[in-house]
Design a protein that fits this description.
There is one protein chain. The chain is α+β, with helices and mostly antiparallel strands and about 600 residues long. It has five domains: about 180 residues, Rossmann fold; about 90 residues, Translation factors (Elongation Factor Tu (Ef-tu), domain 3), CATH 2.40.30.10; about 70 residues, 2-Layer Sandwich (Alpha-Beta Plaits); about 110 residues, Alpha-Beta Plaits (2-Layer Sandwich), CATH 3.30.70.240; about 120 residues, Alpha-Beta Plaits (2-Layer Sandwich). It is built from 14 helices and 33 strands. The strands form seven sheets. The protein has an eight-stranded antiparallel sheet, with helices on one face. The chain has a six-stranded mixed sheet with strand order 2-3-1-4-5-6, with helices on both faces. A hairpin with a 5-residue loop joins β10 and β11. α7 crosses α8. The protein is globular and about 110 Å long. The chain starts with 5 loop residues before the first strand and ends with a helix.
Length: about 600
């Protein structure tokens, strides 16, 4: 296929704006999938994606399209589409997809208008100098505000409102016109043949197959790759033979070769982790070319420890995490041990939804029963001896007396909300330690609130509370910013005088007493009583700030087999009670509370 007949593009949008549904209709119009095999969310192959109605993994697909009208008529075109996720946690997936294409469809829901994540994904596309095609989705809905939203999009892109296309993923209206616009507006791949770059294929994703090893998803920027070629990864310097090459339609479809400008896959046969990496360049072993720029490595935003409920499942958990990392390059983990929970792994995630998806996949795909500790973030702690420590687990936080200063990551946040909720949100934002920089009008009766806040507070049920206050109308996007000095403290929960590592957390100093009381009371209501009394305490700032007592089980030693012991002899009864008292005291000296896994699980839940 000639380069001028290839178009590589993606669809970017806020979550739930209809990307996957529009992709379905494109596949139908281009006859990529037979009608009898068609189903909703055809590109969302993961069970979780279909169940939740969201895209988690990007998915490439190749469509053959015959142009019938206009200047480009009577020609056959190859359209390589990469469907991308919409949630903020999966922005790294979107950024990788955008590096492999020349243009993008910016999809905006006609019933909701421009949302916060729309702005974020648009900025990504602009940074890569991609051609943007503005499109309204769900125009068939009775709630559609077509003219208003067209004006919003036109102002955002500085284009004529008439250039904003209208489509319906549900009915298929406007999809053929959109495909024609893709051919007209998105430039074909640039030829590198005269620059002697040789073979350069950018890895934008990969997956693991237990039989065929790692399968890399590539965009070929120059040269061609065929089955049997001796290839090498530029970064890892690992040599391999291309066992198979092919395209996505949308299932893997073997071809004799991949040519310049195309998007496809290469079966490597490599079954070891850590060899293939996103952003690496595949090139010929005998005539290697320069590596392409690639991607920045993603930095985990949220950390949580994952332990198997049954210690015997530890090897299975290690294997499962390795397999997941092969399909999700933004996920990271390292082994750790806890006295209370045994061996486990400290895992890094891009956000709370990413954490939820990974842990759910571990349970579903690998049948593991897990304990997940309270999520935390990375802090920089300056000690009194002028040493700096990077701390990502509350349990390893230094003692209060050793700390000179603490620094925590902040985020730059944009919230788009109806104007009627803007003033109501201010006390809520203040409660979450936000610094509001600007409030601007956007479109008809909507406001954009620009602010900064600690990442710690963004994790404290911020999304759910924001949706609740604004009746679901607000949308949010955020970007990691710099570290700033923090007023936080480590909160320890002690059971019978022993610190429970799994219950440690870092909280704001102004909320530490409230949080300590809440956690202590919650644990008191969950933990089983023992044969001896013990205390549950909350400790922070080098002092106990909350305490609850749990009474012991008490056996009535005066009753034996349903009869009163000693009859009416008072001295006999006193002797038995004194003996019981001494036994309880001795037991308390060597007291160790047995905390079951069920208690840990209940404490981790909100």
């Amino acid at each position: 296929m000639a380069l001028e007949n290839i178009r590589n593009f993606s669809i970017i949008a806020h979550i739930d704006h209809g990307k996957s549904t529009l992709a379905d209709r494109m596949l139908e119009v281009t006859h990529t999938i037979e009608a009898r095999k068609m189903r909703d969310q055809i590109l969302d192959s993961m069970e979780l994606e279909r169940e939740r109605g969201i895209t988690i993994k990007m998915q490439p697909v190749r469509m053959n399209y015959h142009m019938e009208n206009g200047d480009f008529s009577n020609k056959d075109y190859v359209l390589n589409l990469i469907d991308t996720p919409g949630h903020i946690d999966f922005s790294y997936e979107v950024s990788r997809a955008l590096k492999a294409v020349e243009g993008s469809i910016l999809l905006v829901d006609a019933t909701q208008g421009v949302q916060a994540q729309t702005l974020t994904t648009l900025n990504m596309a602009r940074e890569d100098n991609l051609k943007i095609i503005p499109v309204l989705s769900k125009v068939d809905s009775p709630l559609a505000r077509i003219e208003e939203v067209k004006m919003e999009v036109a102002l955002l892109l500085d284009v004529n409102p008439d250039s904003v296309l209208e489509v319906s993923g549900k009915t298929g209206f406007g999809v053929s016109d959109l495909l024609a616009e893709v051919v007209k507006s998105i430039p074909p791949p640039v030829s590198y043949k005269n620059k002697e770059e040789g073979v350069q294929a950018l890895i934008f994703d990969f997956k693991y197959d237990s039989h065929r090893g790692v399968i890399v998803y590539v965009r070929l920027f120059s040269g061609s790759i065929k089955k049997g070629d001796n290839l090498i990864f530029s970064a890892s310097r690992e040599k391999f033979i291309a066992l198979e090459v092919g395209i996505f339609s949308p299932e893997e479809n073997p071809k004799s070769s991949l040519e310049e400008g195309e998007i496809g896959y290469i079966v490597t046969g490599i079954k070891r982790p850590g060899i293939a990496s996103v952003g690496d360049t595949v090139t010929l072993f005998k005539k290697p070319s320069l590596a392409l720029p690639g991607y920045m490595k993603p930095k985990p935003v949220v950390w949580a420890s994952v332990y198997p409920e049954d210690a015997d499942d530890f090897p299975n958990l290690r294997l499962a995490l390795g397999r997941l990392q092969l399909s999700d390059s933004a996920f990271s983990y390292e082994e750790e041990a806890s006295g209370a929970l045994g061996k486990g792994f400290r895992c890094g995630f891009l956000g709370m939804l990413h954490l939820e998806i990974i842990t759910e996949r571990l349970k579903r795909e690998f049948g593991l029963h897990l304990i997940i500790t309270t999520p935390s973030i990375t802090y920089k702690v300056l000690l009194r001896n002028n040493k700096e420590e990077i701390v990502y687990s509350p349990y390893f936080f230094p003692e209060e007396g050793q700390i000179l200063k603490i620094y925590e990551p902040w985020v730059s946040v944009k919230i788009i909300t109806p104007e009627t909720y803007a003033s109501v949100l201010m006390p809520f934002l203040f409660e979450h330690e936000s610094v509001v920089h600007a409030t601007e009008s956007f479109g008809d009766n909507r406001s954009v609130i620009s602010l900064e806040m600690p990442l710690r507070e963004l994790m404290r049920n911020f999304f759910d509370d924001l949706k609740s206050i604004t009746s679901g109308y607000a949308s949010i996007s955020y970007e990691l910013g710099e570290y700033k000095e923090a007023e936080v403290a480590r909160l320890d929960i002690l059971v019978a005088g022993e610190v429970m590592p799994a219950f440690c957390k870092i909280v704001s100093k102004r909320r530490v007493e409230e949080e300590a009381r809440t956690q202590v009371e919650k644990l008191k209501n969950i933990i089983p009583r023992q044969q001896f009394p013990f205390k549950i305490q909350g400790k922070a700032l080098s002092r106990i700030i909350a305490s609850e007592s749990v009474s012991a089980y008490r056996k009535d030693v005066l009753i034996h087999k349903g009869k009163v012991v000693g009859g009416g002899d008072v001295s006999r009864k006193k002797k038995l009670l004194e003996k019981q008292k001494r036994g309880k005291a001795k037991m308390r000296e060597n007291a160790k509370v047995n905390i079951t896994q069920d208690v840990f699980l209940k404490m981790m839940k909100k």
